[in-house]
Amino acid sequence: MDTLVTDNDEARGGHGVKPASKRVKGIQPLQRTWQNDIIDAVFRRGDPHRHFGERLERMVRHVVAKIPKPYRAEVATIVRMDSGFFDRKLFDVYKNLGIGNICGGKLYEPNKAFVAQGQ
């Protein structure tokens, strides 16, 4: 799970084009990959720099529903994401769906405290 900033600085305008985190005008789709292939994407304007709203939850539910039921119990489904998606609500969604997650990021004090709560 990640986003991809597109550079559209040379365009005069366009639907959803906003300054992005890389200081270029563009769009920043939220995308889900599987073995280096994009399997789902939601196009967004350029200024949201990470997860916001319920789009990601809907995307995860949509993709998990596409996994054949006989495989769900036998094969681990794991969402891999960076710290831009560090969100308790999302972690609860993954738990309710019975899927795992790996969320990388820097170990700031609030993150350390969060991890310590689970021990």
Topology:
Elements: E1 2-3, E2 18-19, E3 25-26, E4 30-34, E5 37-42, H1 55-66, H2 69-72, E6 78-81, H3 88-97, E7 100-103, H4 109-117
Parallel strand pairs: 6-7
Antiparallel strand pairs: 1-4, 2-3, 4-5
Overview of this structure, please?
- The protein has 119 residues and is α+β, with helices and mostly antiparallel strands.
- The chain has two domains: 1-49, no CATH class; 50-119, no CATH class.
- The protein is 29% helix and 21% strand.
- The chain is built from four helices and seven strands, in the order E-E-E-E-E-H-H-E-H-E-H.
- The protein has a three-stranded antiparallel β-sheet with strand order 1-4-5. Strands 2-3 form a two-stranded antiparallel ribbon.
Structural class: alpha+beta
Main sheet record:
3 strands, antiparallel
Helix fraction bin: 25-40%
If helices are DSSP runs of H or I spanning 4 or more residues, what is the number of helices? 4
Q: Would you tell me the overall average pLDDT?
A: 75
Strand order of the largest sheet: 1-4-5
Q: What is the CA-CA span between the terminal residues?
A: 26 Å
Uncertain residue ranges: none
Question: What is the gyration radius calculated from CA atoms?
Answer: 16 Å
- Spatial shape: flat
**DSSP strand content:** 15-25%
Number of domains: 2
The SSE string, one letter per element, is EEEEEHHEHEH
Number of strands: 7
